[in-house]
Amino acid sequence: MISLSDLEKQALALLPKAHADYFIGGSEREVTANANLQSFDGLQLWPRVLRGNFEGDLNIDLLGSQLDYPILAAPTAFHKLAHPEGELATARAIARCNSLMIVSMASNTAIETITEAAYEVNPRAGIWLQIYIQPDRDFTRRLIRRAEKSDCKGLVVTVDSPVFGVRERDIRNNFSELPEGLYCANMKDPDGIFRDIDFDSGLNWNDIAWLRDNTQLPIILKGILHPEDIRLAIQHNLQSVMISNHGGRQLDGVPATIHVLPLLAQAADGRIRLLVDGGIRSGSDVLKALALGADAVAIGRPVIWGLAVDGEQGVQAVFQHLHKQLLSSVRLCGCRNRDDINSGLIFTPNNQEAKPYG
Ligand SMILES: Cc1cc2nc3c(=O)[nH]c(=O)nc-3n(C[C@H](O)[C@H](O)[C@H](O)COP(=O)(O)O)c2cc1C
Ligand SMILES: CCCCC(=O)C(=O)O
């Protein structure tokens, strides 16, 4: 593996057009999906030299899961559209890497089957389940019980989707249903019927309080872009938020996540774990996010590309590649330890007079 953009090209060429478009697409004019990528390129790292070895490590305890490095898999739907082994291949690869997979509520494999496969590879594997709170709260509660029983370590609640984003590619391709034989496996009722995933447009903070009182699992709110919402998350005793614009697939025209990260890190003030996703495609992108205050980053589409091109090994290669690049960027920046990874690493015209780190 040389670069994630090569891998993306390979994957897009392999996949049927409707599926490739579903995976890569954003909503409406895809302004935000593109901004996520471009904004990383617009930030520059500001290295120091002659500072000796990086003596630190990059591992992290993320709400009880031990990761070798702060890169995890964002929840993405329908892995069997990318590879016949679907989420099982993804989960095994990530378990092998000592990383963490956030399983989508819309996975094609049931959460119990995924955790079982991951823990077989690595008993300490990190698996969280992502949910959309369903209008049917009893169903939601049953799914959370299943996540707890199958030993998931966290519950990610996606809150940027009161309604589904308008994906023009999917409309053009008439992509509105899974091919025969594929299902949203978590949506199966005890009577064997598969439900559709609904979006509850009336969700509010009382529902989050309800959820918090209905599970012992750490709750991670996904889809936060505003500092006021960070403050509310802290007030509601949540453990973590994911700064995310859903890969530019929900509201188009919102800021790139890396642009809002500094403001949100300021609001968080170390009181809540900050994850960020959207447009991370290299080790230096990861380093930029860590420097600006993220505790860890998540990758969405690159996982799909690895899966499509080479199944389990492809996903493993994506994580290994980013880990290696991250370490290399850290060394090239002259960081000696984890504390040197701070906002002084980012060059902007505004911080030329800021105190350089170290
Ligand atoms: C194909 C695809 C499916 C996704 N499915 C979900 C999902 O089921 N639940 C969710 O919360 N986010 C979902 N997302 C959003 C991702 O979790 C993540 O926020 C985004 O992909 C990060 O951006 P990146 O792809 O540029 O890394 C999906 C994204 C993609 C590309
Ligand atoms: C009901 C499937 C949700 C998948 C999703 O969140 C996405 O495609 O972005």
From TrEMBL:
Needed cofactors: FMN
Signal sequence residues: none
Is Repeat one of the keywords?
A: no
Q: Which domain of life is it from?
A: Bacteria
The taxonomy runs:
Bacteria, Pseudomonadati, Pseudomonadota, Gammaproteobacteria, Cellvibrionales
Sequence intervals crossing the membrane? none
Q: Which residues form the FMN hydroxy acid dehydrogenase domain?
A: 1-351
* Listed EC numbers: 1.1.3.46
- Write out the catalytic residues in the record: 246 (proton acceptor)
Q: Name one Pfam family in it.
A: FMN_dh
| GO CC terms of this entry | cytoplasm
Keywords linked to the UniProt accession: Flavoprotein, FMN, Oxidoreductase
Q: Which InterPro entries match?
A: Aldolase_TIM, Alpha-hydoxy_acid_DH_FMN, FMN-dep_DH, FMN_HAD, FMN_hydac_DH_AS
From the Swiss-Prot or TrEMBL record, give the protein name. Answer: 4-hydroxymandelate oxidase
Give yes or no: UniProt keyword Oxidoreductase. yes
Q: Where does glyoxylate bind?
A: 22, 132, 167, 246, 249
Name the residues that bind FMN: 75-77, 104, 130, 158, 222, 244, 277-281, 300-301
Gene Ontology MF: a single term: oxidoreductase activity
Task: State the family named in the UniProt similarity comment for this chain.
Answer: Belongs to the FMN-dependent alpha-hydroxy acid dehydrogenase family.
Enzyme class, one word? oxidoreductase
